Amino acid sequence: MRKSALMAFRAPAERILDLVGQEPLEMIELGCNTALLGLHIAGRLPRAQVTGFDEVAELIEVAEENLALAIWANAEVDMEVEKSSLHRLPVPDSCADIVFSFSSMHRWKHPVETLKEASRICRPNGTVVLCDSNRHADEGFITFILQFVKESGDHFMRQLQAAYTKAEAKALLLEAGLDDWYVIEEDLGLIMSSRPLNG
């Protein structure tokens, strides 16, 4: 799984890294899954502190194993993970420069409240960028991915069917009072952000 995730993480990682300036950063990952994306970003940004939250205890266990492996391998990462409700995070207002998520929004228990939390914890000059699958993705992209995931095809399709469409994402943002945020469709993905993104 660690190896197969690398290709999927490339585009979201570069998108997040494009947001980074020269100052030290506080970054929060919502729905950190197994923490592979957060670890990659923390490894690329030695001056950043990354905190990952997830609601699923089993995912946090794997995330902690991945973090331990990174430390054992002498990787210079400043990251921690914690089990928490995503719609009630144990952090103060305006504490993060970048709030990000990848491939977890479709399983958020309280999406509107979690979007409000993302806005609450992000500093006024910071950025929230949330990436997930797009249920209305082009069939050509879906067929292409299914060639590579093989035995994981059923899991991929279940995730895709649980994901939001662009219209549904806009409706969630409207309900959260964040109707000035942006929703972009890209290949298989759906990106929600608090400000325009490059590329």
Task: Give a description of the structure.
With 199 residues, this protein is α/β, with parallel strands linked by helices. It contains seven helices and seven strands; from the N terminus they run H-E-H-E-H-E-E-H-E-H-H-H-E-E. The chain has a seven-stranded mixed β-sheet, sandwiched between helices. A hairpin with a 2-residue loop joins strand 6 (182-186) and strand 7 (189-193). Helix 1 crosses helix 2.
Characteristic key phrases:
199 residues, alpha/beta, 7 helices, 42% helix
Can I get a quick summary?
Helix content is 42%, strand content 24%.
Helix content: 40-55%
| Chain-averaged pLDDT | 86
* Range of strand content: 15-25%
State the separation between the terminal residues, measured CA to CA.
28 Å
Q: Describe the strand arrangement of the main beta sheet, using strand numbers.
A: 3-2-1-4-5-7-6
What's the total number of strands?
7
What are the segments in which pLDDT stays under 50 over at least 5 consecutive residues? none
The profile of the biggest β sheet is: 7 strands, mixed
N-to-C SSE string, H for helix and E for strand: HEHEHEEHEHHHEE
Rg: 16 Å
Task: Tell me the structural class.
Answer: alpha/beta
The DSSP helix count reads 7
The best one-word shape is: globular
What oligomeric state do the depicted chains represent? single chain
